[in-house]
Amino acid sequence: MKKKTEEKNPRLGKVGGQALLEGIMMRSGDEIAISVRAMDGTVRSKKTKFVSLRQKHKILNIPFIRGMISFVESLVMSYQTMNTAVDMLGIEEEETKFEKWLKKKFGANLMDVLMPIAMVLGVFLALGIFVFLPTLIASWVAIPFGGDIGIWKSAIEGILKVVIFVAYMLLISLMPDIKRTFEYHGAEHKSIFCYESGEELTVENVKKYKRFHPRCGTSFMFVMIIIGIIIGFILPTDMNTILRGFCKVLLLPVTMGIGFEFLMYAGKHDNFLIRALSAPGLWMQRITTKEPDDGQIEVAIKSLKLAMPEQFPNEEMLAPDPNPASPSEKAEA
Known about the structure:
alpha+beta; 13 helices; disordered N terminus
């Protein structure tokens, strides 16, 4: 008689998060909770809602398309939650004359103006560094060999992408603020693992769990790089360098779609194949996650519980929210 197939853990994939400056955002369904360790040492929390376009329009929830939608929404949500977390920290800074002028003329502070510009510039910089630069360097390497080295060109591009990505992560991890954020990243993963295991969410229980999670943004980025390398092997190697770069940019939606489907599957399954395919992303998390302290774990637990009111109905804010969400913020996004 065949053994009955084990029932999948219903808690897998129910909650996800993002490390912030001195805090953590947790999301479960359309519930979003942000908790930070404020300058006065208290934990401040804020709740809001975010309803994905995939829920509003079913056609956007079909495989591969939902990956592109999720990626764009993640960027928007990341920008919003980072701004909110900074406001919640309670950092008091005197406004400069330029900031006062901006507020008077446009009703906005300096960060409201600079952050969107920085995000756009960051996207173009990322495309330049991770897409066009490896393609350009590979074309230079091919010159002594007559300009055509076949699939070796794609192999060189792939190696350069991985080297650039790892080097970038290592460099930013040396910054004190980023190191602190990576510690909160570790607290986020540990608390999610503890929840998924069914254990009570206490500091001592959370500390026991590992900080490497297969359904992590770092893993997603690494998966995208690997898929991008595979796509590079499909493109003609004798293509013009600039055209080849633009083709890779145009194929990014395909890369995002495949990467998203893989991570969703990996987050809900645990077998040899998934562990092997997830390994590179998990290795990268040795850089992007650090062991958290008890205070950081407390923030992670608070955020997770607030994001799941049905399972933790008695959870309350530890400190008054200095910037309560407006009705428009709580409306469906």
